[in-house]
């Protein structure tokens, strides 16, 4: 009863308010109500998206569309199509295209490719395990040889843990995207190798390139990032930062200035990922790489990645570091989780190669001496300049003056290489994918020094290159 | 209450009523194509969610206790000197790993110490602290029946006669190559292998690579680039997804094996062109797999080829699991459907599964392979295949083709087919839910509930059988499964042992969800008309 009175009273108030309102207010409200009624009753409105094409027009469009051919035709004289075929094992004396030469092109730094102990270890493993592992690491693809190799590598490098991959390229290309995601920042050297570039592309992080080995440029970028951070501290607190460098650069043969990098690491709080494919088994008193060379505590580097295809003369790659970091890759490294594991015979060969490296620590000194020798011998060739550190076993010989176009440079260098091949020294040009590299290095001849080459052979190679340069370039 | 129904139905429509497969055009198929994707009863869905909810609640509880020091922290921690760096991992990213995966993690990464044949030896591994760390006791569990390794044709063997040529090549070549294909890494062995692969598949030319995963991730970017369209199946392997992403092309996903979805995408792509600019697409490529390893389904190749011809698209077929495993002479899905290899533009496959080696290949017309020799990332930057491994592939392929003078290869293919049929038929009769095509040697058996994943794998190991179980994130969160890989090397006795064990365990764990066991609905399961001569 009281509610009924209350309601009536509210109604009276409403009618009163109606009479008291100004005229424009009522007219405006009336228009709005009419507009709402119109919208309610009008037809729904679809986004115009060419849905007004008739079926006949659609069929015509489908008929007319012509795709590009799947692959563009490749010219028959493309340099990469006429590659060298090696008959037999690519050891110290190599048979290329039917001709016997001394091998200055395979990355067999410690000469372990033809080592009898390594081969017999692989044979024993073949007898026990067969060839393939028939599964990824998670599904019965983990063999006791894999676990043993990981332990041995961790012990050799004096880190807590190591993880092995079945392919050298996939090692760093899977390791980087496991830690660095979209929104994180990676500072990477311009001359980083292609595998690192692919890893960075897969990670979708912000990439900042700094000039090759230029610490001042890197510091400038880091300072810029610091000022960015101060503008947005909340975002900065969750953005991870990394520096990716190589120990010995594949593309230039230089060494990276690691002590300065460590200083920058602690000053700006960035983590360091080090790629040691060329320096593992080469630098350092015992072959432990660039950290031993500079005497740096290995725990200062967050992740070391290397492939086993150079010094260890096997196949595959490994990453080592603290368990805190490496363990993460066991579930998020794509090349580790979704791919079959390394065949056991290759793992056994790598273990034996490690044994040899540990038992003969003087081969590293011998290798470095040979590198110095050929570095000196190659100085002063007219028309060619040596690019690379004096103790780097993988040097580049670039043209002092370019002919104008890259194609002509490549042709000229090919003639030098052919001259040497005909006289018994096997060399190769460094190959790149021209359209895909971020910073394409200039064309060059790759000279690789191994511990098996004698001093006479080194001298012969140097003099032959001098001759070739003389005859071709002048 | 009706809202609860709608909620469950919506969840189920995401996971339990997937619009896979669609309606098939039966006239293109030369023999019956039977695939099963039975859905489980509703209570199973409910209990699965309840299981995950309980796990999540306990996970929060444990995290809370660890944060407050009530429970010991067993995880490795950051260095003292780097404590003020930005944390490398966010806590919530690893929640699932820490609290759910860790509880049953003893069922993965089990180390073995023998050849991964039909039976293998496992290293015994115990944990003293609930799976945080493992310790080897030093004992080996011998002769565990292997239902997990991809050993379809049984070429993972240590028989001295079989490995004679491999031993010789290993002695001659050593293990490494130390150079890339384009520099000094092309050995005569690679040339021999490539010629043999081309002959085996019936195509003009082939190229081999050292790793199957890398074959996809390094060659798809060489074939397509910006301005191209990739139509990829929902359930494609990570390597295909990575290759597609690295290429920079636009990616569109069609529902698994669903031809209507694919056709709609093709039509829309050609009619409307690239988004926003409406320019025509440079090319359209369809990425599919021969056998999908988590579902056991076989691709509907005849329909895809007819679509591809009609709309002028290109087809990239990844035969990682199907080469050697299906087809009358083991030449993959192309032979299985009676089609010609020219129908497929890019034939890709791996040697890890049926050939007992490692590596991958891409085969097709000579123009395609020449292009890959010059432009593939792997040819320029990655080391080539180990020669001993190449020899293993050569001898396995020669055996399959009959070039070694015996019929052993054909016998293996027939044996695999028989074993597959038998195994699947028996599992259906027992009442389990099995996914996939009747002819696929990959047999996923659905477990659904998270608790059963651990129980199943552990109990099977107690019975001396090694199985593979998979959960999230490799499968949808509600469809955890056990995956069996049938091998030609499995004898009838081994399969019977496994089937009896499954029978017992199925009753114990209540895994027999199927509403149609063969005995009650015989007309749903036609025995294939392909009678095999013994």
Structure characterization notes:
Chain B: Its cofactor is pyridoxal 5'-phosphate. Chain B: It is a single-pass membrane protein. Chain B: InterPro entries: Aminotrans_II_pyridoxalP_BS (IPR001917), Aminotransferase_I/II_large (IPR004839), AON_synthase_class-II (IPR050087), PyrdxlP-dep_Trfase (IPR015424), PyrdxlP-dep_Trfase_major (IPR015421), PyrdxlP-dep_Trfase_small (IPR015422). Chain B: Pfam families: Aminotran_1_2 (PF00155). The complex is a heterodimer of chains A (474) and B (534). Chain A is 46% helix and 14% strand. Chain A contains 17 helices and 16 strands. Chain A has helices at residues 2-20, 23-41, 55-64, 116-129, 144-157, 168-179, 194-203, 215-231, 233-238, 258-268, 290-294, 323-332, 334-337, 344-359, 362-377, 406-422, 455-473; strands at residues 86-87, 93-96, 99-103, 142-143, 161-165, 185-189, 206-210, 241-246, 271-275, 303-307, 317-321, 384-387, 394-399, 425-426, 428-429, 444-448. In chain A, the strands form 3 sheets. Chain A has a 7-stranded mixed sheet, sandwiched between helices. Chain A has a 4-stranded mixed sheet with strand order 1-2-3-14. In chain A, a hairpin with a 2-residue loop joins strand 2 and strand 3. Chain B is α/β, with parallel strands linked by helices and 534 residues long. In chain B, the strands form 4 sheets. Chain B has a 7-stranded mixed sheet with strand order 5-11-10-9-8-6-7, with helices on both faces. In chain B, helix 6 packs parallel to helix 7 (238-247), helix 13 (387-401) packs across helix 14 and helix 14 (408-430) packs parallel to helix 16 (492-509). Chain B is globular and about 65 Å long. Chains A and B meet through helix 3, strand 1, helix 4, strand 4 and helix 5 of A and strand 2, helix 4, helix 6, helix 7 and helix 8 of B.
């Amino acid at each position: 009863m009281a509610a009924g009175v209350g309601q009536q009273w509210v109604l009276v108030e409403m009618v009163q308010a109606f009479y008291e309102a100004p005229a424009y207010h009522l007219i405006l409200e009336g228009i709005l109500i009419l507009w709402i009624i119109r919208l309610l009753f009008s037809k729904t409105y679809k986004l115009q998206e060419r849905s007004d094409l008739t079926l006949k027009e659609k069929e015509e469009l489908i008929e007319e569309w012509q795709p590009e051919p799947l692959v563009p035709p490749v010219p028959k004289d493309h340099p990469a199509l006429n590659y060298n075929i090696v008959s037999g094992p690519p050891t110290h004396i190599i048979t290329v295209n039917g001709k016997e030469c001394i091998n200055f092109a395979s990355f067999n730094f410690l000469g372990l490719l033809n080592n009898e102990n390594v081969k017999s270890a692989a044979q024993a493993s073949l007898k026990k395990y067969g060839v393939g592992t028939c599964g990824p690491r998670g599904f019965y693809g983990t063999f006791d040889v894999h676990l043993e190799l990981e332990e041995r590598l961790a012990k050799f490098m004096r880190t807590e843990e190591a993880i092995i991959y079945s392919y050298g390229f996939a090692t760093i290309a899977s390791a980087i995207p496991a830690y660095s995601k979209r929104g994180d920042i990676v500072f990477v050297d311009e001359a980083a190798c292609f595998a690192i570039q692919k890893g960075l592309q897969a990670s979708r992080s912000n990439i900042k390139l700094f000039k090759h080995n230029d610490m001042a440029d890197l510091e400038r970028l880091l300072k810029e990032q610091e000022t960015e951070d101060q503008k947005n501290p909340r975002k900065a607190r969750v953005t991870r930062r990394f520096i990716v460098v190589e120990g010995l650069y594949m593309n230039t043969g230089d060494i990276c200035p690691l002590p300065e990098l460590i200083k920058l690491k602690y000053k700006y709080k960035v983590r360091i990922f080090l790629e040691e494919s060329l320096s593992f088994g080469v630098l350092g008193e015992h072959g432990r790489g660039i950290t031993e060379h500079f005497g740096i505590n290995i725990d200062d580097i967050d992740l070391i990645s290397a492939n086993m295809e150079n010094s260890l003369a096997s196949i595959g790659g490994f990453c080592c570091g603290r368990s805190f970091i490496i363990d993460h890759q066991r579930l998020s490294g794509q090349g580790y989780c979704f791919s079959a594991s390394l065949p056991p015979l290759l793992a056994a060969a790598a273990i034996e190669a490690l044994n040899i490296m540990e038992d003969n620590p003087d081969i590293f000194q011998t290798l470095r001496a040979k590198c110095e020798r050929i570095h000196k011998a190659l100085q002063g060739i007219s028309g060619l300049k040596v690019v690379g550190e004096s103790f780097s076993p993988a040097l580049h010989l670039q043209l002092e003056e370019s002919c104008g176009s890259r194609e002509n440079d490549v042709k000229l260098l090919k003639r030098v290489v052919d001259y040497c091949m005909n006289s018994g020294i096997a060399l190769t040009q460094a190959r790149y994918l021209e359209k895909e590299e971020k910073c394409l290095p200039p064309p060059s001849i790759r000279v690789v020094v191994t511990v098996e080459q004698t001093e006479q052979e080194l001298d012969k190679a140097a003099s032959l290159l001098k001759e070739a340069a003389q005859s071709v370039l002048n | 209450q009706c809202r609860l129904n709608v909620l469950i139905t919506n969840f189920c429509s995401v996971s339990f009523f997937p619009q896979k497969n669609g309606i098939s055009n039966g006239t293109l198929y030369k023999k019956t194509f039977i695939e099963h994707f039975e859905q489980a009863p509703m209570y199973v869905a409910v209990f699965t969610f309840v299981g995950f909810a309980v796990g999540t609640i306990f996970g929060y509880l444990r995290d809370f206790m660890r944060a407050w020091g009530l429970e010991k922290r067993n995880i490795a921690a950051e260095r003292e000197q780097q404590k003020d760096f930005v944390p490398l991992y966010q806590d919530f990213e690893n929640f699932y790993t820490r609290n759910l995966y860790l509880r049953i993690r003893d069922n993965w990464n089990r180390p073995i110490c023998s050849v991964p044949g039909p039976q293998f030896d496992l290293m015994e591994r115990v944990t003293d602290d609930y799976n945080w760390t493992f310790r080897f006791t030093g004992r080996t569990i011998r002769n565990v029946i292997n239902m997990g390794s991809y050993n379809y044709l049984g070429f993972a063997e240590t028989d001295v006669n079989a490995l004679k040529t491999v031993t010789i090549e290993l002695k001659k070549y050593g293990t490494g190559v130390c150079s890339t294909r384009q520099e000094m890494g092309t050995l005569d062995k690679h040339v021999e292998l490539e010629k043999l692969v081309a002959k085996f598949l019936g195509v003009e030319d082939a190229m081999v690579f050292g790793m199957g995963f890398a074959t996809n991730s390094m060659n798809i970017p060489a074939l397509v680039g910006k301005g191209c369209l990739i139509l990829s199946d929902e359930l494609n392997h990570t390597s295909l997804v990575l290759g597609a992403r690295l290429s920079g092309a636009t990616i569109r996903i069609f529902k698994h094996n669903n031809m209507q979805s694919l056709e709609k995408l093709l039509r829309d792509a050609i009619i409307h062109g690239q988004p926003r600019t409406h320019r025509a697409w440079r090319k359209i490529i369809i990425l599919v797999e021969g056998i999908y390893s988590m579902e056991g389904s076989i691709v509907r190749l005849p329909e895809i080829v007819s679509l591809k011809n009609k709309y002028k698209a290109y087809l990239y077929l990844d035969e990682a699991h199907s080469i050697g495993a299906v087809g009358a002479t083991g030449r993959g899905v192309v032979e299985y459907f009676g089609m010609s290899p020219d129908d497929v533009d890019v034939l890709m496959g791996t040697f890890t599964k049926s050939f007992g080696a490692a590596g991958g290949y891409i085969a097709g017309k000579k123009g395609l392979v020449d292009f890959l020799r010059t432009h593939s990332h792997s040819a320029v930057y990655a080391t080539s295949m180990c020669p001993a491994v190449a020899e293993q592939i050569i001898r396995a392929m020669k055996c399959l083709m009959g070039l070694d003078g015996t019929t052993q290869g054909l016998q293996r293919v027939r044996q695999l087919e028989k074993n597959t049929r038998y195994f699947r038929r028996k599992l259906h009769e027992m009442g389990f839910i099995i996914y996939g095509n009747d002819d696929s040697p990959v047999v996923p058996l659905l477990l659904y509930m998270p608790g059963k994943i651990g129980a199943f794998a552990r109990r099977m190991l107690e019975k001396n059988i090694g199985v593979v179980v998979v959960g999230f994130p490799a499968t949808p969160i509600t469809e955890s499964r056990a995956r069996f890989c049938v091998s030609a090397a499995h004898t009838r006795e081994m399969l019977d042992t496994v089937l009896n064990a499954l029978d017992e365990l199925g009753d114990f764990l209540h895994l027999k969800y199927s509403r149609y066991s063969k005995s009650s609905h015989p007309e749903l399961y036609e025995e294939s008309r392909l009678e095999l001569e013994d």
